Amino acid sequence: MATVLSVSGSPSATSRTARLLRHLDARLTAQGHEVIPLDVRTIPAEALLGADFGHPAITGAGELFARAEGIVIGTPVYKAAYSGLLKSLLDLLPQYALAGKTVLPLATGGTTAHVLAIDYALRPVLSSMGAAHIVQGWFTLDKDIATGDDGIPAVAPGAAEALERVVDQFSAALGRASLLAAAG
Ligand SMILES: Cc1cc2nc3c(=O)[nH]c(=O)nc-3n(C[C@H](O)[C@H](O)[C@H](O)COP(=O)(O)O)c2cc1C
Predict the structure, then answer these.
(1) Which one, out of 11, 92, 130, 181, has a CA that is 20 to 30 A from the CA of 41?
(2) pLDDT digits (tens, 9 = 90+) for 124-153
(3) What keyword terms does UniProt attach to this protein (predicted)?
(4) Which H helix or E strand runs over 134?
(5) Could you tell me if the CB of 143 is within 6 A of ligand 1?
(6) What spacing in Å lies between the alpha carbon of 82 and ligand 1's midpoint?
(7) What pTM was computed for the model?
(8) Which CATH superfamily is domain 3-183 in?
(9) DSSP class per residue in 51-89
């Protein structure tokens, strides 16, 4: 099974995107993957905004990317694209930080008008960073992500089924990639 880095690019302290990712992390863990969560908002702002390539938090994030076979990238849609916070980290990673990786792009947003933001905005950036395989992504409406009284994220039934499907496709793609790697 694979090591998966699960990256949330929301600056919000009560982020729906992060909650959604942590919910999906549990499914990946149950499938046998080692999942490492990374909230970009926990990286010091001076490192991200000052383009401090040598800052331990930036080199540490780079090492997590290097170690993972699979990367989940989650972002809120801001102004019809992915978040600036996510871009500030991606800009500080090596050009081919996603080389050989299987990537699952996910977005949350307030309107279906921007359901294609993953494909026209995020996917080209992931490709430019050398991703070996970008599996089908998914856009989830913010109103479909809630938190129950127990603090556990609750995803509306239709959205939950769609997300489970894309996560399972990602997991299957990771399995195929590891078989290919083992075959040399
Ligand atoms: C500054 C800002 C800009 C936004 N722009 C868009 C947008 O262009 N399209 C959209 O569908 N939702 C937009 N939204 C709504 C968020 O994408 C949505 O609520 C998302 O789930 C927030 O995720 P978060 O809680 O992880 O930050 C915007 C929200 C903010 C705060």
Answers:
(1) 130
(2) 999 999 998 999 999 999 999 987 777 678
(3) Flavoprotein, FMN, Oxidoreductase
(4) strand 133-134
(5) no
(6) 9
(7) 0.97
(8) Flavodoxin domain (3.40.50.360)
(9) T-TT-HHHHHHHHHHHH-SEEEEEEE-BTTB--HHHHHH
